[in-house]
Amino acid sequence: MATEKHGIAYIAAEAGYFEKRVLRKYAGVWSLWALGVGAVISGQYSGWNLGLHSGGWGGMLIATIIIAVMYLGLTFSIAEMSPALPHTGAAYSFARTTMGQWGGFVTGLFENVEYVLTPAVVVFFIGAYLTGIFETPTAFQPVWWILGYVVFVGLNVTGVELSFKVTVIVTLLALAVLLVFFVSAIPFFDFSRWALNIGPGGTELPEGNGPFLPMGIAGAFAAMPFAVWSFLAIEQLPLAAEESADPKRDMPKGIILGMLTLILTAFLILFLNPALPGVGSFKLGSSGEPLLDGFRAIYGSGLAKVLAFVAIIGLVASFHTIIFAQGRQIYSLSRAGYFPPFLSVTHDKRRTPHVAMVAGALVGLAIMLALFFGLGADAGSAVIGGTLLNMAVFGAMCSYIAQAVSFILLRRNHAAIERPYRSPFGIPGAVLTIVIAVVTLGFQLSDPVYRAGVLGVAIWFAIGIVYFAFVGRHRLILSPEEEFALDHAGKPRDGAPAGRPAGAA
């Protein structure tokens, strides 16, 4: 082991360490665009609508505008950082360069919570749809979750080429379904009667024509965690940096095109879905299948099962793509020694981080089962799904704050690093991201229904920090992210063995 300084020590990687952890390059601009859009698109099929219960339609509109501004600041910051630091570590890599090992680890831990729990939320809603299609009892839902993980972890393990091809196909299909819905909904659109059918205090107004802000401006802030679901995970694209054919050219294009696509679809679904006859904001505010409710209103319940299969495509797109991100995020932290290194071993033929993906799936599934049996199988989508959603959003908001801080520090302290792309919003955009994320966190903590889930995430953070303090920080390895950070630190490599390990490039 190398001499330890400032509480951090690097160990020499064993022979063949990096050869066992090789990823394969494949993705271009449109693969990256599909990865970003596909990861998010399920949030416009299920999840966003729960914010209607908190703020009414007007509150949800304001919340979505605020959150869209936050994501523009974030994604343009990431579009600058990712080609400048083109490593799989993404958020951890950005923070590691600007805030040292502790900053990198804590940021990576925040993002880890997001990418372990987000697929759990998505597969929860997949289970809700499949329960309706096959008329299985509520107690059967965990079987749907397990099957979902087995199928899509398996697809991701098979190879990056297949993974990206499936991503492009299911993302295009998911967007096609939304396009059909938008066109079909326009003739039935009755905004005042249905979208404004929530009164003060959250009561239903049978004739509609209610106030724009039935819960006041506080309701708009309370809806912000749910508005996040229309965009959450677009920031995962840098995790594919080492599998991108030309990350310096393609990564900014993929991120920005993906964000613009999602802004358009998010506002269309918000305007059209609640305004359909028999649907309305009040009913939609507690629905586990809002898009299906909309299709039923347009085409009738006789086609319900066929429509449910159609509506599930968006959920499948997100589930598949976020499992991809989950595997790469765990892989990068474990390759550098922050997590146990065995998690970063890649398949000897397919070069996919199969151990990381299986481990992340098992953790996500365990948390789902704990909530399912702890809250009770009959707790409902708004409680179980909403709790999982808020846990994922809490981790995401913490990660966004850290990434925005990384951007500011990178601009101020590392001006010499080559930047193939520069954010037009600069430091003010990053500051705005931090402010909105902090406000969102505050309103998450104010909701007693979901506070227990947020506290559970805080315990997750605490366990991770204890592990790093007593184990991880004494056994770091010079991965590409660590090499880059140490080379740009402007000071000696404290505690690091000299030279690049074989295969670390």
UniProtKB/TrEMBL annotation:
Topology within the bilayer: Multi-pass membrane protein
Subcellular location(s) of the protein: Cell membrane
Pfam family membership, one: AA_permease_2
UniProtKB keywords: Cell membrane, Membrane, Transmembrane, Transmembrane helix
Listed transmembrane segments: 26-45, 57-79, 115-134, 140-159, 166-189, 212-234, 255-277, 297-325, 355-376, 388-410, 422-443, 449-470
Transmembrane found in the keyword field: yes
PANTHER family: AMINO ACID TRANSPORTER-RELATED, MEMBRANE PROTEIN
Name used for this protein in its record: Amino acid permease
Organism: Jiella sonneratiae
